[in-house]
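User: Quick one: structure for sequence A, then sequence B.

Assistant: Sequence A:
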Amino acid sequence: MPSTTNGVIWSAIERFSVQGVSFLLGIVIARLVTPGEYGLIAMLAIFMAIAQSFIDSGFGNALIQKTDRNEVDYSTVFYFNIVISAILYGVLYFCAPLIARFYNQPELTSVTRWIGLNLIFISFSVVQRTRLNIDLNFKLQAKVSLAAVIISGIAGITMAYHGWGVWALVFQSLSNNLLSTIFLWASAKWHPMLLFSIDSFKRLFSFGSKLLASGLLHTIYLNLYSLVIGKFYNAEDVGFYNRAYTISQYPSTNIVMIVTRAIYPVQCAHQDDDKWLEQHFLGYLRMTCFIVFPLMTLLAVIAKPLVLLVLTEKWLSAAELISILSLAYMWYPVMVINNQMLNVKGRSDLFFKLEIIKKIFAVIILFATLPFGVVWLCWGVVAYNLFDMLLTIVFTKKVIPTTYISQFHSLKLILLNVTFSSVISYVCLISIQHVWLQVITGIIIYISLYFLICRVLKLKELVFILDFMHHRLA
């Protein structure tokens, strides 16, 4: 479908231009600050993420899923976001001293109060971004977000270079969200009406509230590790874990986000056509995993030399964590693409029930591995992600006819390919000493093997990509 393909392309451009630049700027700043200073910001992640979940409240997805949405719906969501963000910032402001005492980090009081302003800035842009997503207008989002990231990133680097430490990270975050919101308002050409509809709120909240609850559970889980590590270990360990998490989930999360936010509005438009949904489901799954699986396993193979090369030796403790977490997040596309079908079919109740079961299991794993150190915590994440994937497929079967066998069968050649390519690449790197050569050789060997095997097996995903590139360049 041309509209879907075009949406994926611009979603990719927007996501990787913005996230790519942000990622690179983050690496530069990480070289200029200490793991402990980086860990201070990571300690606040759980509080900011929970608050941000309340600001959206699942209304973004509810607006996309609602096929008869109108200006009243948009305005209602907009004003709700503003009010809830102000309330949440007030709570965060007054709880800042408690957070600082919890971690035994006095500096967190002022850091929390400043970085909490992001909640206000973000609340003004939720509806604008949702409207652009519905229109598959990722081109405008790319321009807006990229400009904000570059300006704020340069400012953050400058402050870090002059010794501002954690405050460089605070200012970078604040300026990025503020500029992004200002640019969206100047470019998106949408303004709210002066009205708030209780009926509209109730209809949207009936769907979005379950997504809110599900999102809160997932958000708490993702950030619980930084909170627990900060409480039971120290800020430096939080820094190592958070940097490892940021790097390891980057390829998988961004690629999946590119695909799912482009196909979600299209799937919702066909939400009553079960035959269409079933036909396209495995295709989306295979194509996404065809790209994500090799990237994640390659990252696991070259993690140590990559950290030494990019982040310097002071971050070396993060290398092993990156390798482990990369194996966990390679399954992210399977989980998300299956999960999304529940929302497409309007079954946010199943989505919420699924999250409850998964997160109970997640917390059990977290506290079972906690006494054994951060490395074992990361292996616990691997175990959870495998459980998450298997259980999610059970629930997906309730809305479309799919099975473990059909999904495994569609992915088995890709899995065999990445396993073979990873083992051979790792063995080849053992005898190489220089980190530059390890990184370059590892990438060349892995990519060459992966695509050679794809050609031998005649995987249709490679054929599709090559044909698409040929037609685009012709």
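Sequence B:
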Amino acid sequence: MSHTAHIPSHRKPRRSASKLAVRAGVAGGVLSTLAMAGTASASPSAEPVAETTLEMPVLDLDLGTEVSTAVTTAAENTRLAAVEAAVEGELNALEESARTGAAAEAKKAKEDATKAAEAKAKQEADRKAAAERAGRSAERETLTNASASNGGSGSTAKGSGSSLGSGTVTAPATGSASAAINFARNQIGKAYVLGATGPSAYDCSGLVQAAYRQLGISLDRTSQDQSLAGRSVSLSNLQPGDILYWGAKGSAYHVAIYSGGGKFIGAQNPRTGIVERQMSYDMPTGAVRVL
């Protein structure tokens, strides 16, 4: 026996080959993994990083632009719709205002036209009245001058008969007042001519003289003398056929024939000619009766 046999050996016991192989494989795998990790850390690949960093912002930018464009378009459409609604409302208001204004203008124009027509009618009536007054004044002046040139006396009637004032009835009355009235009415529409005694034109006393001639009554020619013929009667007691006069008795400037019903027939003036009118149109001063 060796003298060193009792000393324990310090060498590790040998491992089996299979265990060593497994350990070597594991160690190799670990070292390979570490090597690959180290390589990745030390030399990073630019291509994957470039793909991640470049492509994602581009996608985000396009999406943001589309969203922004959509929002802008929607806002613009909303604004345009609001403007269109406002314009439509304003147009409707203008149309309504135009219709209202046109109706008001038409109403005012109608009122103005009515007032103008009424004013014109009044002016025409005033003008007619003034023309009639002027015509009568001219006739009165002419008759006054003629009377003055004759010494102021009435003309003598032809033939013999009873004297009634300065007018003289030279023949007995025949027929009725209707004959005189019908004659005068048949002359309506003929012209008034100062000094005319018919048959196409008359003045006021010429018409009265011609009408009473139908009854066989001869009257003096002038309105002054005719206002003195017969007997005076009140205007409230008139009978058809009475002679109406305007102006003072004996110096009347106009005469006509009472036709009944509050009307008279007379040769008024150059503008109207011979007409039949209500006495209220121009009330006479007095009346005389020769029948």
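The longest strand covers residues 254-260. The chain has five helices and ten strands.

User: Thanks, that's what I needed.
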